[in-house]
Amino acid sequence: MSEWMIELKGTTKRYGTLVANDHIDLQIPRGELLTLLGPSGCGKTTAMRCITGHQHPDEGQVLIDGQDVTDLPTHRRDLGMVFQNFALFPHMTVYDNVDFPLMIRTLPHDERRQRVTEALRLVRMDELGDRYPRQLSGGQQQRVGLARALVYRPRVLLLDEPLSNLDAKLREEMRFEIKELVTQLHMTAVYVTHDQGEALALSDRVAVMNVGRIQQIGTPRDIFERPNSLFVADFIGLSDFIEARVDAVEGNSTWVAVKGLRVRVETEERLRIGQEVTLFIRPNRVELLEKGAPAGENVLEARVQKLTYLGDNIDYRVVLPGDWEIRVQTNGQQYLPAGSSIKVRLPPKHCHVIAEQK
Amino acid sequence: MILTYTLLVCLSIFIFSPFVLIMIKSIGKDWFGKLWLPPTLTLDWYKWAINVARLPEVMKNTIIVTGLAVAMSTIVGIFSGWAFGRRHLPGKELLMSMILLPRMIPPITYALGIARIFYGLNLVNTHFGIALAHVTLCAPYAILVMSATFEGLDERMLEAASVCGANPLRTFFHVTLPQIMPGILSSMIFTFTTSYNEFTLTLMTYGADTLTLPIRTYLAVGEGYWEVTSAMSVIMVLPSLLILFLIQRQVKPEQLVGGFKGL
């Protein structure tokens, strides 16, 4: 028993001159659900295919449960996988699809029947065992895909954008279903997606990928609250980015100059005075205050440029002195008409600086 | 509406009248001159066809040749189709055009060349030789149909099978084969009809022991027995009709045609 269920050691994959995976190092402990998150072309699928064995890395190693599987063919890796397009066998019934891995493993008949029934019950498809995949809805097909991947209790479950082909409402539902199943079965799982909402909702840890590298890896909270780069901040959630310059540093407080204004930021990052940085804040962390609110730290004069009413919340465009605009989201109760003069507060603990500029 | 039906009826008459003529001829006796229908009906011509023209033996030759041609073309079709449909081949279009070439140019132009080579190899007057000549016409169909079939095969499905623990061989038998079966069937049907009806290439490669139905029928025309020739034609039509019936029942013709991508 190795400490890591899956380990990538300097895995590199090139397609011609394009480097799809650039020396990826990744360790996934037993029982963890890790998401590979990134825009299309970031290398997340390639990384997964190196784990499944559908791609052979040009360099580096892939270890599953401490065993070097780099040169082991897929069918001997003991993995389970769920596909974006479901990839069910169209000429087999639901029951036979789920039975397929067991048939390949030549298990005794009784055990096969018992396990298939159990797996189908687990995904609430036990009533539809004799249907063919084409007779099922997308959500049902993906449940069958899940049952097929779990029925032989593989060491690792891989999910390649399993919800992308489903409609929005079903996607939400199945997120939790998958999360629950994986937790319940104590599976180690790798989930590939470009949907940040999915990644945050499902994962124990998220690895954000960009141009063939892992840009940041951490818990959903880490990734959202403390992104280590403009890319991660921009890719996950909404952000206001403002170019700034470091003005003063004192302990954990850093003052940055933004268009002639001074903003205090709490950051652990060590910055030089005069360094060009980007200040960023999540739009829903900005506080909108009445015009008459008392002056204070990080409280700035502002004017509502326009607003969009979204029901659950209101999306404001607010112009600050020095003519820069930020986006602010508040809950729907605080309604400030366009054109009105207000004040905004940028809470220091929600202001972040990243030592790069666009 | 009326116009459409009129046209359709005319078309049917145009297509079916030779058949009807042959049918009646094959069972009629003393049908000469201006008679609308033969005065007496008889099965004598069929007896002649079977006994004198040795039709059972000819039929056997035809079935052996066609069977061999279908088998060879199908095997070639499966392997080449896999390469065309699933692999990145440099010069794929050029290769495909070359494979299709025998279908595009009149077979008579290269039939003589085939005969020359076959004389050298002692392949003339052998079932295998004739079948091999037929493959030049049958294989393009098979390759075309199988390429389209393999192109339509979902790569992810094969990956799913491998993740489930199936090695390539078991993946082929449990997943790939059942899914390419319609392609194989339609390829077999079309190669069968091509080989079964093939005349020009057979004419250049047949011998006394390897008469096939189309050749025998042609020779009978030369011998001048119209009625016997008619009976042979009717016998020759039967398997084709059977195949047509099977296609209609088992496979949807429009799907088969769909397999002919780019033709």
Tally of individual domains of chain B: 1
Oligomer: heterodimer
In the CATH classification, which architecture of chain B applies?
A: Orthogonal Bundle
Question: If interface size is counted as residues with C-beta under 8 Å from the partner's C-beta, which chains form the largest one?
Answer: A-B, 29 and 19 residues
What is the CATH superfamily classification of the largest domain in chain A? P-loop containing nucleotide triphosphate hydrolases
Number of distinct beta strands of chain B: 2
The major pleated sheet of chain B works out as: 2 strands, antiparallel
- Mean pLDDT level of chain B: 85
What's the mean pLDDT score of chain A?
90
CATH architecture of the largest domain in chain A: 3-Layer(aba) Sandwich
Number of helices of chain A: 8
SSE topology sketch:
The complex is a heterodimer of chains A (about 350) and B (about 260).
Chain A: E1 4-15, E2 18-29, E3 33-37, H1 44-52, E4 59-64, E5 67-68, E6 79-82, H2 94-104, H3 109-122, H4 138-150, E7 156-160, H5 168-184, E8 188-193, H6 196-202, E9 205-210, E10 213-218, H7 220-225, H8 230-235, E11 240-250, E12 253-258, E13 261-266, E14 276-281, E15 287-289, E16 299-309, E17 313-320, E18 324-331, E19 341-345, E20 352-354
Parallel strand pairs in A: 3-8, 3-9, 6-7, 7-8
Antiparallel strand pairs in A: 1-2, 1-4, 4-5, 9-10, 11-12, 11-14, 12-13, 14-20, 15-19, 16-17, 16-19, 17-18
Helix pairs in contact in A: 2-3, 2-4, 3-4
Chain B: H1 2-27, E1 28-29, E2 40-41, H2 44-51, H3 55-86, H4 92-104, H5 108-121, H6 127-151, H7 155-163, H8 168-197, H9 200-205, H10 213-223, H11 226-250, H12 253-258
Antiparallel strand pairs in B: 1-2
Helix pairs in contact in B: 1-11, 2-11, 3-6, 3-8, 4-6, 6-8, 7-8, 10-11
